[in-house]
Hints:
Order of helices and strands: HEEHEEHEHHHHHHHEEH
Strand content: 5-15%
Number of helices: 11
Helix content: 40-55%
Largest sheet: 3 strands, mixed
Low-confidence stretches: 239-245, 247-255, 259-265
Mean pLDDT: 85
Number of strands: 7
Distance between the termini: 51 Å
Amino acid sequence: MATASVSDSREKELWRRLGEVNDPELDEPITEMGFVERAEMTGDGSVEVDFRLPTYWCSPNFAFLMLDGVRKALDQLSWSPAYRVKLHDHMFAEEVNRGIEAGKAFGDIFAELAADADLGAVRETFRMKAFKRRQEAVLRGLRQHGLTDVEILGMDLPAYDAASFEPGEAAMQKPRYRAALLERFPDRCMDDPVFVTWEGRQIPPAALSAHLAELRGVRVNMEFNGALCRGLKQTRYKELSVVEGEPTLVDFIMDRVPARNAPAV
């Protein structure tokens, strides 16, 4: 019974850690996006993770950043298991999986496959977008709560932490924006303004509406990409559909229809 309890606890920890890894472009957990196809513990306590993206040609930048996040998440597991991560159905899957098996860092694998790209710069761009999307959600939530622009932009960390929201986007993004702020500005003092630009500039109250309009553009772009990504994945990997007792044409095209057994003679 104790062994089962330990196993359950570890499985929950595994999925919790994987849920902390975000799609860098969408700033949404890879578990909610359905990219983690399987995450299981084997009998010896090691972990196996199967990872699958919406399309065969998904940008290698995204794949590498997410896989690197998965690796870091698995490294943080309390029982320090051996693990295997496998990328499926991607144009670079063979090279990536071979590199992982050889013990190469994702940065090294990426450098071999995309020598003209800077993974650090790509990572920083996505961090900026996530910062802006989270900030916009909280700013809108505070406005909806009836706070004035002067009150909002005068908030320091203690005031920010004391603010509360009804369940929804603002409540979800509140701790995530705090984390992004302190990651971006680790030396921030408790009485410094909470809402600043990505560059660290203070936002004058008269400029808040224009600032929110800029942030809205970032959010709309990310939400569109997220909807597109989910749609592509659902189309690519959807379960066998049945219409009036028969599979659909799409199922035949995608070879999801099992062969019929020959009739008995």
